User: Fold this.
Amino acid sequence: MSVLIALADVGSGVQLEEVLANAGLVARWDATQADGPRRSSDDAAVVVLDADHLGNRLLAVADAWRDRASVPGVIAMGSSPIARELAPRARVTLLAPAAKTQTVVDAIRDAAKLRLATEMRWPVLRAAVGLPFVDDAPAAWQPTLAAARGVDPEIPRAALRWHVHHYATPTTRLDELRADRVLTVPELETLAQLDGTRTVQSVIANAPVDALQAARIVWALASMGAIELSAEVRDVSTPARRTLHELRMHLRARTRRLEGATFYDVLEVTPIAEYADIEAAYRLVGQRYAPRVLARHDLADLAGVDTMWGIVDKARNVLVDHASRGRYHDWLRSRELRTVWAIEAAAAKQAIDAFARGQRSLADGDVHRAMSDLAVACRHHPGHPDYESSLAWARFRVQVASGRDQVECARHERRLVEEMLLGCRVWPHALVALALLCAASGDVDSARWHLHTALRVDPNVPAAAQLARRLGMVSQRSTP
Assistant:
């Protein structure tokens, strides 16, 4: 077995070359290739990378080595924080510079054995199943899949372990394979799960065949380009994928929002909220973040975020109880905490009044006055979804009235509203304003999407039914 040591430091390189030679391996140190492959003739079975030297380039350089015709195994040596962070993404075993000789030798042997498991591509698939390389064509599909069904189980297991939390999305190639009838009935039943919202882990766990056979077929089809594996949801053209994609974005943003948040921020209510307001807010938070809602989705690497629901329950219990709420409010005041929602009662009331005036002005068609009133509401309570989204809509109308390009203005205001709503509970009025901006920008599908969400939560949102009719939607008022 030949090993190429691509370490930048001469001392480390020479020392490792000697250690591996004493262990019976054919090792060669070459510092000129520390930044990536440079010689087309190199056919080492394993390459040792310098993770500390490469830093952020570790992933790209590891991929460059794997793209070689010899498909070498790749490991890395390093101890920096960036090396530890990037090694899993680069799919390399990271060894400490002071690792014992046997540890290094074992890692090299494992890398050589599983070198055909680090990439899922047609040439690697053919090599892994012991078949000579041929062009990727329909005539080669059936024998390749037949061989893949009996491949060494360590290859698909090792290849897929980097992708267990990745979403599996079918491509048109899968349709071609179905049409050519090269898949068995159990395999077709396994693949019936693939809609782009299930992770590799979930697909294999719920397959009608045993896990090993499911792993083999997923690995083979991914290598053939019939399945795309991605850390995020791809191609959000279906409602299920778009729902999951948006939920993942909301969960990440909400995690950030809840850092240093008060109970008022958790429920998104102000200190003047009454019991009914708190209960309504609790229900709206639950519509997006309750564990029963999250359990319907394969959240992959975000599966543990439902633990934050406990703080929602606690916030509600404290704020609906007058005594507990009083003590909590005193505690906040003693620390002079001010957040998006923990604001002075006077400011909250002034914002409510200004928002009401702005809404009346919008209804009367006086967009300049509406923008002024809504700006006052946002000044007293910045970050309130209803206030900010309504201001964005009024600002858009004023800009268009002054001769600005409608699509450009709508897209700009839309982006502001979308960013502001990330991580929030469901705000029906804000979603209607967002739908209006989407429609004005020419994105009618997104307008319908946001309007559908708003109407599902509250069928009586002002202007929602009218906009629904304009967009060719059936009003949800009549829905039983």
User: Anything to note?
Assistant: The chain has four domains: 2-113, 122-230, 258-334, 351-478. The longest strand covers residues 2-6.
